[in-house]
Amino acid sequence: MKINILFFFFCIFSIGLISFSIQSDPELIEFVVPKKWPKPVYNFAKNPVSEEGFQLGRKLFYDPILSRDSTISCASCHLQYTGFTHVDHAVSHGIEGRKGTRNSPVLINLAWNSTFHWDGGVNNLEVQGINPIKHPAEMDNTLEEVIHRLSISETYPALFKKAFGSTEINTSTIMKALTQYTVSLVSSNSKYDQVQRKEKGIVFTDQEKRGLILFQAHCASCHKEPLFTNSFFASNGLKIDSLLNDVGRYSITQQPKDSMQFKIPTLRNIEFTFPYMHDGRFRKLKDVINYYSEGINTKDRHLSSQLNKSMNFNEMQKKDLLAFLYTLTDKSFLYNKRFSFPK
Amino acid sequence: MKILLLIVTLLFQVFIFGQENSRLQLTPLFNGLPLELDKNYILDDSSWYKFSTCRFYLSNLSFFKEGKLKELDNEAYLIDLEEPTRLFIGIKNMQFDQISFSIGIDSTTNVAGILDGALDPINGMYWAWNSGYINFKLEGTSSQSTEKNKSFEFHLGGYLAPYQTIQTVNLPIQTNSDPIIIHVDIYAFIRSIDFKKSSNVMIPGLNAVKLSSVLPSIFSVLPNEN
Predict the structure, then answer these.
(1) In CATH, what class is A191-331?
(2) pLDDT by residue (tens digit) across A223-250?
(3) pTM of the entire structure?
(4) Of A102, A104, B39, B127, which is most buried with the most CB atoms under 10 A?
(5) Do residue B110 and residue A123 have CB atoms under 8 angstroms apart?
(6) Measured between CB atoms, which of B5, B129, B160 is closest to A8?
(7) Domain residue spans in chain B?
(8) What is the DSSP code (8-state) at residue B217?
């Protein structure tokens, strides 16, 4: 008899729970794929983006609570107005000024990336966030500590409940929230895009047109439109830095053919994402173009075959190419309030 | 009404408890002796071994009867000598004469993004910089180690071709004991290691593949004792 009564209350309780959770279902946001763009690689089905999840991820992204000494947030190395990269630092700087070995990459159109990091070592956006949290030269923290801090905070448990239906915070919900934010960082409104969409009154200048033709002839095989990367790995012939000794993709696959191969980065917003390359060795976009034009050692045995003929651009061609690259700047992305520090 | 509630309660219980009523028990050994952490084992050749971590994944547990697949369990189990409760795997009550399982995590799971429970990266069986699970982890100290502090660390994993490390084990079951005891004698594994060449394997690659290929031989089920 007693058991039945207990069970009865249990039923009422569960019905209550169910209806409560129905009531506060997070508000899903549809991920919009820009016209004529390929399908995203990220599997949204497993982690549908909601307004609550996005806002939670955004808060986490800007919160130094994730780092051991609470000084560094994701945004310290990924600043919005520079395309979410670490402006001015060749290699990233973490807590206590510790230097990493690589330039922080931009966080742009990550939904289309099939691998992450310069060597492609990370195979899914959801698991990327474990790296900066644990890396001694980045946030130098542990997952246990992060979960603990968030769980005893005044604000976070309620936010996790709104986003994921439970106040319990674990690795999975933290990573999913961060992902909901970073996967939403889509830049598709540069002048280049507006011209592609044939928006009224927007046309390339003659100089930009000439630049586009040069780009398509010499660069687009790797920096493929519209994402300006084909997601593969390549070597553009950069000499190895003997201090950093970074062999790129080889450290992940242990296969000789992958030695000195790095992930081909997107060139969107390239005007503002300096310094350039995996070790930030070029400070100016002009330096990059000079390098491609006459700096490549075409005998380098790791060099990808697309680059084994010297381009030897003249001054005008260099300016044309630069002018085209500037059309990839998307101010509505770099200054989008929705992505900025949450107030 | 009362009866209805009673039936619902019973059904509920059957649903919750009815499926698992038999168990597999993993029993780690070293050269036939129960494997205990931090205990010094001395072999006949006077080499010694002390283990501090012994942890591995079992997955794709399949049950066969006369060659026919009866049941496939998609769960991944983290077996950890440090946590005695993790040495047991609950299984459904059924007739079978063979089981097979993978040592480690398959490639689909390795690329599936963030996962919970046994597969939560917080369990220390995950490489973040080279995303993927560590299938098998054995750490300790030994007279054979070439490291200054005599330590050894074997973190075996890797799912990318050509360095896949996941292994499959087939075990005939000729016992009706419950739990069914699966011996995991790491002696053969230890003996296969060329400590002079490497006392540490911490990344995917050829070494990890070679060492992993020994793992299936360390699992065995003894026939009925009585």
Answers:
(1) mainly alpha
(2) 999 999 999 999 999 999 988 899 999 9
(3) 0.91
(4) A104
(5) yes
(6) B5
(7) 22-220
(8) G
